[in-house]
Specification:
This protein is of the alpha+beta class and about 140 residues long. About 20% of the residues lie in helices and about 30% in strands. The protein contains 1 helix and 10 strands, in the order H-E-E-E-E-E-E-E-E-E-E. The protein has a 6-stranded mixed β-sheet with strand order 4-1-2-3-10-5, with no helix packed on it. Strands 6-7 form a two-stranded antiparallel sheet.
């Protein structure tokens, strides 16, 4: 009887350890799923338009150029084909909500005016239906 209990306990422990080892290996393989890959960087006036891919989705991020390059000396510059862990926030999320409905501003054309010289547009033909910004980016840093 004691041998049976010991056998069951050891079998149970063996199963748990093999399952957790498998989970760690699969998590290590999937770590790139949480990263955004930079596919395109374009500069327009004082703004960078950065296209990102993640899990078959396309994101267009805008980031204002940082004029004081010396203050960014310790930071890494993002590059095309690089993969980064970023937090993205939608410009559409800043639209007001009234009675539970998101209000789209009158005259909205699918473009956002970033400043007096720069406008960024949605690109439905490229599966870009929203524009994002990231608190993690300061220009390309």
């Amino acid at each position: 009887m004691i041998r049976y209990i010991v056998f069951v306990l050891l079998s149970f422990i063996f199963c748990l350890s093999s399952c957790s080892r498998h989970m760690v290996i699969s998590e290590a393989r999937d770590i790139n799923k949480d990263l955004y890959e930079v596919t395109k960087i374009k500069k327009v006036n004082d703004w960078y338009f950065i296209n990102l891919n993640k899990n078959d989705s396309v994101f267009k991020v805008v980031s204002k150029e940082h004029l004081d390059k010396n203050s960014l000396a310790g930071y890494h510059k993002i590059k095309k084909n690089g993969k980064y862990n970023l937090i993205l926030q939608s410009y559409m999320d800043t639209s007001p909500i009234i009675n539970g409905y998101k209000i789209i501003p009158q005259g909205y054309t699918g473009a956002y005016q970033l400043d007096s010289l720069t406008t960024v547009s949605l690109e439905p033909q490229n599966n870009i239906y929203d524009i994002y910004y990231s608190p993690d980016l300061n220009g390309l840093y």
